[in-house]
């Protein structure tokens, strides 16, 4: 043996004393193995028994809080309104409010006039806000009503009393022209532990608004949610806080500033839509982010969602699709027809856009700019990317709007058709467009989207043309499905 080998062997000698020769202690070794095996089996059995015996605890882990999943009964809505505007705005609220199921009130500045008749049974019950003239308001451009509306969250909290308050998990604020999509709101709130302090909402789409009213604010028109523990803390400081922020323009900025004092940041969800835009919402709604549609606002200030319909009728049409599959509403997907080099973009429940040429995924997922900023009516900037809506007819998509929905055993069939086909067919003389104009409509098949999908990492679903060219009697058949392992949407 070499000198180096002897040295290494000498270094190992002390370790030998820690392990007696196995041949001399067979009984000890066997006993040790038996004890180890018994311990492992016991731990496996005990942990399995705990899991099977405590389903509520398991549900709490999955749903971010104790007491099972949040549902509509756990939410109290505080809607800011006025006696003078309710008659013309109540139709928006009545599209989503469900008497005897939805909880909360619309808070008015005064008692409705007797001449207006009895309060509609289809409207939320109303309350008259407490007098707020003792509070300071110094913003030269705003309205003192911001003070009153900022306090309706506190008034809603205090009106419940201790017993009823215990059953509430979230307080949600909105305007009298806010349209909520309740199932999707519930799906979003189920992502968060209601026992913690949460402030969930969204910003303005127009950067000019966010610079003034802050990115840290949940905008009241799009709506925002406050968990009960945060509401309890907020109620304790709100009145003094309103005076401290007397120069704040709106109620949402006042509340956001008060929540900032408590130290809770806003948790942003992309489905809350303030809709601080002017013009047509078509481009924005055709490329919705991968998030559930929670709210729409400012519907009286933008073009109707569906051409040829009134603003209220448009939302009724959208609600028809929504009621058949809430989670899938406005969810965006796109695919290609390699036989004709077509790009097909689907905004479920809203429209199908047919491009008679190939468009890459980056462009298809970017909204066409069919709108301007809220305050200055400018072309930019927005809080998301946009792409120009070309003036060249041969560069625009052929659009088919939602017509009807049919419920199937495991999903839905939605039908889309052109609204003004005669004018569209004269727009472009290109041969590729002529083939596109020959399409009469689209049938889109989709499985019902489980709302728990929003608890997972977001991913846009895939689609495919069915039956080769997928066209029967001028109607293209499309199927939306979950993307396969390793699948990507790449132009052919």
How would you describe the overall organization of this protein?
InterPro entries: DUF604. Pfam families: DUF604. Keywords: Membrane, Transmembrane, Transmembrane helix. With 492 residues, the protein is of the alpha/beta class. It folds into two domains: 197 residues, Spore Coat Polysaccharide Biosynthesis Protein SpsA, Chain A, CATH 3.90.550.50; 156 residues, no CATH class. The protein contains 15 helices and 22 strands. Helix 4 packs parallel to helix 12 and helix 9 packs across helix 10. The longest helix is centred in the first third of the chain and has 28 residues. The N terminus is likely disordered.
Mean pLDDT comes to 88
Number of individual domains: 2
What would you call the shape? globular
- Kindly report how far apart the N and C termini lie: 69 Å
Structural class by sheet pairing and helices: alpha/beta
Radius of gyration: 30 Å
Number of strands: 22
As for the CATH topology of the largest domain, it is Spore Coat Polysaccharide Biosynthesis Protein SpsA, Chain A
Low-confidence stretches: 1-25, 45-62
Shape-level CATH architecture of the largest domain: Alpha-Beta Complex
- Helix content range: 25-40%
Strand content: 15-25%
Give the C-level CATH assignment of the largest domain.
Alpha Beta
Biggest sheet: strands, sense, closure? 9 strands, mixed
Total of DSSP H or I helical runs spanning 4+ residues? 15
